[in-house]
Design a protein that fits this description.
It is built from 12 helices and 10 strands. By secondary structure, the chain is an alpha/beta fold. The structure holds adenosine monophosphate and zinc ion.
Length: 307
C-alpha cells in the first residue's frame, strides 16, 4: 500500500478515513486533526468558538498513558503554552511507574510539570477503597476531577485539557444513551465552559481514535505507562468499546459520524436538564467547590478516612 499523499510506502492504514499514510504524512494528518478539533470543537451546535488559543495557559492532565502524553507533546509542538498536571494516586507499583514515566517525559521535552500526591493529601486510593467498601473507580474519578479543577482554578490556568479520545467519548455517549441520562447527555462534548466554581475543560483529541493516538505515540517514540490499573477490572466501558469496534469495522467512519451528529443535532435537546442540574449546585461547606449536597463527595471521603 502507498501513502495517499506522497506515494511513499504506507505505514498506517486508516479505513475510517479511507486512506493510508507514510510516517511523515501520518504525523501531519494527526496534527491537522488536533488543530481542527481545537478550532471547531465547540462549533457544533453552539456557534464557533475554539477550545483555546495560543494566548491561553493550558493545564494538561497527564496520567502517563499514551493519550495524555501524545496530547501534551502535540500541543507543545503546535506552540501552545502547556504545563502538565499529574495526580499520583498512590496505588503501589502502578502509580510509581506512571509518575516516573511522566517525570521522564516532561524532563526530556523540557515541559513543566505539577504533581499532586494523593498520599500527601490524605487520600491514597488503596485506603479510600478499603474504607468505602464499594467500587473504587467512581470515587477515584471524582477525586481526580476535583484536583484537576482545583489546581486549574487556584493556579490561574485558562483551561484544563484531558487526553480523552474518540473511543472514550463514544463509550461514554453510548453508556449515557443506554441510561437516557439527560443531564450527562446535555453536557457531553469536547468543551465544558468555565462557570460558577468549574474551570473550562477541553478534550482536544476528540476527533482521533485510540488506534490513531497509539500510532502517533509509537511514531513519536513516546515511552508510556501501559500497566492497567489493578483496581479497574471488568469496567463496563470495555464492553461498549467492543460493540463500537465491531460497528466501526463493518461501517468505517461510523464512530466519528455518530459523535459529530450527536454534537450537531442531538445534544441541544438535553440542555434543559443541564440547566436544572446547575441550578441545584452550591458551594461545599468544607472546601467551597460546587456540589449538589452540603458537603462534596471528596470532603465526605476525607471525613470517612479520618473516622
Ligand atoms: P482515564 O479516565 O484513565 O481514561 O483518563 C482520561 C484522562 O484523564 C487521561 O487522558 C488524562 O488526561 C486524565 N488522567 C487520568 N488519570 C490521571 C492522573 N492520575 N493524573 C493526571 N491526569 C490523569
Ligand atoms: Zn468539599
Amino acid at each position: 500500500m502507498k501513502c495517499k499523499r506522497c506515494k511513499a510506502p504506507a505505514a498506517v492504514a486508516l479505513p475510517s478515513h479511507n486512506t493510508a499514510f507514510c510516517p511523515g504524512c501520518y504525523l501531519d494528518f494527526f496534527s491537522r486533526q488536533v488543530a481542527k478539533g481545537i478550532k471547531d470543537g465547540a462549533g457544533c451546535g453552539f456557534g464557533k468558538e475554539p477550545l483555546f488559543t495560543q494566548e491561553n495557559r493550558i493545564l494538561v492532565a497527564v496520567s502517563g498513558g499514551k493519550d495524555s502524553l501524545a496530547l501534551m507533546l502535540e500541543l507543545s509542538l503546535q506552540g501552545y503554552n502547556v504545563t502538565g498536571l499529574h495526580i499520583d494516586l498512590a496505588i503501589g507499583e502502578s502509580s510509581r511507574k506512571a509518575r516516573e514515566v511522566v517525570e521522564r517525559f516532561c524532563a526530556l521535552h523540557s515541559l513543566s510539570l505539577r504533581i499532586v500526591d494523593m498520599a500527601a493529601e490524605g487520600l491514597p486510593i488503596p485506603l479510600v477503597k478499603e474504607k468505602l467498601r464499594r467500587p473504587i473507580c467512581s470515587a477515584c474519578g471524582k477525586i481526580k476531577r476535583h484536583y484537576f479543577n482545583r489546581v486549574a482554578l487556584e493556579e490561574g490556568y485558562d483551561v484544563l485539557a484531558t487526553g480523552h479520545n474518540l473511543d472514550d467519548e463514544i463509550a461514554r455517549l453510548f453508556s449515557n444513551v443506554l441510561r437516557w441520562d439527560h443531564t450527562y447527555l446535555g453536557e457531553q462534548g469536547p468543551l465544558l465552559r468555565a462557570e460558577n466554581g468549574f474551570a473550562r475543560k477541553v478534550k482536544p483529541l476528540w476527533r482521533l481514535s485510540e488506534f490513531e493516538t497509539a500510532n502517533y505515540a509509537f511514531l513519536r517514540g513516546i515511552d508510556h505507562h501501559s500497566m492497567p490499573c489493578p483496581f479497574s477490572k471488568g469496567a463496563s466501558f470495555n464492553i461498549h468499546k467492543k460493540v463500537w469496534s465491531d460497528l466501526e469495522e463493518a461501517m468505517p467512519g461510523r464512530k466519528l459520524n455518530f459523535y459529530l451528529e450527536f454534537l450537531e443535532r442531538g445534544r441541544s435537546h438535553f440542555a434543559p436538564a443541564c440547566q436544572k442540574a446547575e441550578e441545584a449546585l452550591g458551594p461545599c461547606r468544607r472546601c467551597g467547590y460546587p456540589t449538589s449536597s452540603e458537603v462534596c463527595g471528596v470532603c465526605r471521603i476525607k471525613e470517612a478516612l479520618a473516622e
